Amino acid sequence: MDTYITKDALLALGINLGDQDIDSLLAHLNDTVEERIGAEITESLSDEQLQELIDLQDNATDEEVGDWIAKHVPDYKEIVQDNIDIVIGELVDGADEVNQAA
Fold it and tell me: Which residues have a Cβ under 8 Å from the Cβ of 41 and sit 6 or more positions away?
């Protein structure tokens, strides 16, 4: 799994949790970002491209899959950044609740 949101980013947002809680939150946030990126990518592909990507994921290295995505999803970097921004925005909206739960 890629790391999109870091502990430093959470601290900069004022999220103050213990190490175990912050690790759990980071895992959840990064999983959420990754799922949303995947959903957005698959929606942008034709049925043929989607099948090609699925086959590639079953048989290729992560680097080969990344190269394929870079070639077939030209706005990949924007998709990634948009989803990071959205998840961070959702977190900021609930930051007080997160800190109170600590």
Answer: 53, 69, 73, 76, 79
Residue type, 3: T
pLDDT in tens, the chain (102 residues): 689 999 999 989 888 888 889 999 999 999 999 999 999 999 999 999 999 999 999 999 999 999 999 999 999 999 999 999 999 999 988 766 666 655
Distance CA 7, CA 34 (A): 17
With contact defined as beta carbons under 8 Å apart, do 15 and 99 qualify? yes
Q: Which pLDDT value is given to residue 31?
A: 97
Q: Cα separation of 62 and 59, whole Å?
A: 10
Task: Give, in order, the Cα–Cα distances in Å from 63 to each of 54, 60, 73.
Answer: 15, 8, 15
**Cβ–Cβ under 8 Å, residues 88 and 14:** no
Closest C-alpha among 13, 17, 77 to residue 66: 77
